[in-house]
Protein 1
Amino acid sequence: VLEHLGHLSIHARQAIESLLAGQHRSVRRGLAVEFAGHRPYQPGDDLRRLDWLVYARSDRFVLRLDEEETRLRATVVVDVSGSMAFGDAGAHGITKLQRAREIAAVLAFLLVQQNDAVGLALCDDEVRELLPAQATRAQLLTVLDRLTRAAAIGRTGLPSALATLARRLPRRGMVVVLTDGDVEPAVLGAALATLRHRTLEVRVIQILAATETTFAAVTGMTEFVDLEDGARVRVDADRMRPLYLRALEQHQAQLAAQCHAHGVRFDVVRTDADLTTTMARLLGPPGTPQAVTSSVTAISETSAHSS
C-alpha cells in the first residue's frame, strides 16, 4: 500500500503556524517562494528583500513578503469505543478498529516521510492516550506501537473527548478523526465547532462495516448484542431492514450536514474496500478523484495478477 501511495502527500488547506521548514503555507511572513505582498522599507531591513522592480516603476523602497512553507502538525484521533470492535464475518472480514488502525498508520508514515509532525489520540468518552505531534522516525514507531495495542473496549462519547482535545492541542494544524460515527450528529457538530474555533483543520472519516451499510447478512429472527454494555434485543431482521436503512441514511445525511456546516471534510470508508484505493481517495481532493483512484486500482490489479 505504501509503495503505491508513495507519490501522494498530505496538505493543509489553511495556513498553519510554524517556523520549521516544510511544505505548507504559514500565517507568518518570511522568505519563501510564494508572493504574499509588500511593505515599506524600514531602517535595518535586509536589503536583499527589496523589490527592485517596484522601485524602478515607482521610485519607492518596498520589501517583498513571501509566505513561509512550514511543517504541518497533524493529530490522528482514533475512536476506541466498543462499537469499533464490530466487523464483517468471514476469513477476510476486519473490524472497524482494524481499518482505522490501517488508515492511521498510513497517514502517520506519509506525514513523517514528508517531514511533518504526527501525533495520536486514542479516545472513547475520554482521551485515553495522547502523543503530542513530532516529526521523527522514533515517533512513527511509537504511533505504530500504540495503534497495535489499541483495543475497542470503551464507552461511546467521542464529542466530549474532542472537546478535551481542543483545549490540549496547539492552535492551528490538522486533526483527522477516525470513527464509526455512532454519536448524535448535533453533539458531534458542537465538538467540531470547538476544534475549528482553535483554527484547526479537521477531517472526519467514518468507518463502517459492509454489513452495517446493507443489513443483508442477517435474516429472520436475530439477536443483537450491544458491544459496550452487553444489552440484547431480538428482532425480525427482514422487517427491520428497511427501517434500519432509512435511519442509517438519515444519520449519514445529518453527520455530513454538521461537518459541512463547520467547514469539515467528511468521508465514508467501508472495511471491505481496498485499502490502497481508499487511501488514494482520502488523500485526494473532496469528491472522487477518478484519475488517481483508477490508476491506483490498476496498479493493485496488476500486482494481484503478478502475484
Protein 2
Amino acid sequence: MAEVLLNNVTKVYPGDVKAVDSANLDIRDGEFVVLVGPSGCGKTTTLRMVAGLEDITQGTINIGERVINDVAPKDRDIAMVFQNYALYPHMSVYKNMAFGLKMRKMKKDQIDQRVQKAAKLLDIQHLLERKPKALSGGQRQRVAVGRAIVRDPKAFLFDEPLSNLDAKLRGVMRAELKELHARLKTTTIYVTHDQEEAMSLGDLIVVMHGGIIRQVGAPLDVYDRPADRFVAGFVGTPPMNFLEGYIRRTDGKFKFDLSGTLLDLPERYFPCLADCVDQKMVLGARPENIKPVDAEHAAPGETVGMKVIVSEPLGGVRDVYLNHGPDGQRVIMRCDAHVRVPHGGDTLVKIDLERTHVFETGELGMNVTLNGNSNGVGA
C-alpha cells in the first residue's frame, strides 16, 4: 500500500485540448477515493495517467516515495479493473487470475495460494474452472477484481467497473467492494459518473468538471457544503433547486427577494452577504428541505406560494414538481409519499432556510455562504 500524490498534473491532447488542468490531489495510504463527474470531465484521463496508460503533459505523480511519470505501467505496482472486465475468453477463471503472476515468474504453489485466497474472499471458488462466457456480469466483475487482488498491489484503480451491470446488481457489488476495501485496506482510486455510487463508496470524493477539480471532501461534507453551483447540482438526487432572486438588507437583516417574497436568511450568513446587497444571486435548496405547509401554519419569511405541476410517488417518498413566480422557476420538493398535494393547483411550501446556500449566478457560481455553513449545517 502507498500514498498517491498528484502535483499540478495536466494533460493536453493534440489541438491544444486540455483534458486535465493542474490537478492536485493527495490520496492517503489505504484511502478509498472516488473521482466523479460527467462524461468528458477528465476523471478517466486522470486515472489513466496514474496507471501509465496516458503520458503526463505537465506535473508529477508519486506512488509512495517514487515519482512514476516515466515508469512503465507494469512497473508501477498498481492493478487496474476495467469497465469491460478485460478477461481472456479462452482461459478459465483460475488462469485469468493467475496470468499476471505467471508472467512475473512466480512459483506455481505461490500462485495457487494467492488465487485460492482471492477466490475465497470473493466467493468464486466454484467458478475457477469456468470460462468467462459461462459467467454472469456480476461473476465476471468478481473475477476481474480477483485478478487485481492476487497481485497484492500498492494501489487499485477502478475505471467505472459497475457501469455494465443492472441497477440491482450494481447496488450489491457496491456493498461488496466497500466490504472488500475494509478488509484489504489497499489504496483505491475509483472512477464513476454516478454520484450515488461515489457517495456510497468513497472515503473522499473528487468532483471534476471541464478537466478541473472543483471540490475534494468527504461525501457528506461535499453534499452539505458544496463549493459552487456545479457541485451542488451534480451531487444529490434529485438535484438541488436553484432559485434566482436578489439579496436585500432590511433593519440590519439579510433577506432573499424571491419575486417579491422576502425570505429570512440565517444570521450566520450575514458577514458573507455584506457585499451582495441588491445583487442578483441564486438560492440553493435541497428537495428534502422543502415541505408543504397549510395556510394556518405558514410563517412569513420562510413560506412561498407555488403551483403544482406534477407529482411522482416513489414508494416511501413523493417528488413534487412545482413552478414559482412569473418566470416559472422549476422546483422539486421531496416529501412523505402519503402527503397529499393539489395536483395542478396552488400550494404553500416551507423552505428550511437554515439548510440553504446562496450562490453567485452562472453554472459555476461560487457558494458565497460556504464559510457560514459549518457544524454540519448545510444542504
Protein 3
Amino acid sequence: MALRFTLRQLEYFVAVGEAGSIALASAQVNVSSPSISAAVSQLETEFGVQLFVRKHAHGLSLTQAGRQFMKQAKKTLAEAGALNHLAGDVTGNVQGPLAVGCFLTFAQLFMPSLRREFVAQYPDVQVKQYECDQADLIELMRRAKIDIALTYDLDIPSDMMFRPLAVLPPYAMFDEEHPLAHLPSVSVEQLIGYPMVLLDLPVSSTYFLSFFTNLGTRPIIAERTRDMAVLRSLVANGFGYGIANFRPLTDLAPDGRKLCYVPLTGYVRNMRLGLVALERAENVQTVQAFVRHCQEFITDEKIPGMNMTPLLAGIDS
C-alpha cells in the first residue's frame, strides 16, 4: 500500500493544530503559509476527513477527527525521530533531527555561530532552534519539542540535568553620563535610589530583584522590557541603569549610543550558563555530540559574541 502522507505534512499539521492558525504555524516552522495550507489540504483530501474548522476571526480549531489525527500524528513523528536516533546509534554516525532551545536574551550573540560550527562538523544533523524565556524552554522540553537547551541555572526542575559551561557574574550597565558609570565596580547598595530598567522575563526578573530583597529593599523600577536590545537602548538613553550577566563585543546600544559596563559587587549570585536536558535525552548520540561541541565552544574564558575580559575579574574565587 502506497504511503498517503509525508512526515513533513504531519509536522505542518501538528504545528497548525498547536498554534491555532496557519500564520502562527508558519512563523514557528519557518515555512511559507501557502506551503503549510497546501500540506493540510492534501492530508484532508487523502484521508477524506475535515481536520479543522476554519473561523475567519478566530483562526482554526481541530475537529473531533482532527484531534484524533493529531494524537496519532505526534506519535508517528516521535517514532520517526526515534528511528533516526537508532540509526545513528547503530551506525555510529551522528545524524537526524536535533531541536535546540536557547535563552532568548543571548541567542543572538552565539547561537548562530555555535550552530554553524556544529552542522559543519556533523552535516547529517538537521538542527532546528527555538529562542524562549526560561519557563517556555522547560515547557517545550516537557512536550518533547526540544531535545536540549542552552540557558541559565535558574529553577531547573529536579528531573532535568544541568551541565554547567561558564560562570557569568552580574554587572550594571549605565549611560555615559550616569554618576556611577565610570567606577571600577559598583555595589547593589549604590544602585538604590537610581531608576532601573528591568529585564522583565519569567524567572530572570526574580533573579535580578533578589539582589535587592537580600538587602531588605526594592529598586526603583522606571521601565520594564522583555527585550534585551530594547533594555540596552533605554539604558543608553538615560532612562535608568540595567543589570545583566553578559556583555556583547560592542559597547554600543542598538541605536548607536555608548554603554558603560561595571562589575556588580556585594551579596549577588553569579549565573551559570549551561545545558539542560531530560536525563533520557543525554543517551541519544546526536545530543551527546552537541553537548561535547558546546563544552569546547563555551568556557569561562571564551564565549563567542561576548566580551569576557572585564567580567573575569568579577568572578568569585
